[in-house]
Give the backbone structure.
Amino acid sequence: MKVRTPRTVAEAEAIQDELRALVDLTGPGPRRPARVAGVDVAYDGERLAAAVAVLDGTTLDVVERVVVGGRVAFDYVPGLLAFRETPALVEALGRLSAPPDLVVCDGYGLAHPRRFGLACHLGVLTGLPTIGVGKTAFVGSYTAPDAARGSWSDLVLDGEVVGRVLRTRDGVKPVFVSVGHRVDLETACHNVLALTPRHRLPETTRISDRLSRMGLIENVAFE
């Protein structure tokens, strides 16, 4: 699906409303993905570097990397971050030798004020199973899960469950998991635990974060 860059906030929200109807929240999505992609974007003023790191779903070894340089096409507005990031991320995903079985975003999917965060947006545009894993709660309320790894509680917004607060390490701050497209919440959390054998954040997020920052340092093409 073609990436559209809005000119105004109202236009951006209208695009979100239109695309939200295309989101598949039932999945179920892959429980044993062979290729898992992490995506992240780093910024330096008006420059950005969008990175995709593809990991082997079993060993978590990196099997492919892509970095795309670009320039910010939309101002920062809370809730509309996807319009800054999706053009370069879609391009980077398109440069992979083969599509991943699952995409993990450093951000949110359904856990979003308009129920259409980056993971939903990117999933609809690419057609790929996509989930969001946030470091903090962007929206909603929750009760802290138990301290043991694997414990979780519902993330609730306006009476609706929009994600899970998931403990990935014993006694360490949880992460905030929400579905994006073509994955259900149970499968999303299953995969997040599989991607966090040693650290709080998924390996996909940790590696794509480093890769995007290196893209800025190495000055990939930004025109």
Observations:
- Strands lie at 35-44, 47-56, 62-71, 102-105, 130-134, 152-157, 160-166, 175-181.
- The first strand starts at residue 35 and ends at 44.
- The chain has a mean pLDDT of 95.
- Residues 2 and 25 are 21 Å apart (CA to CA).
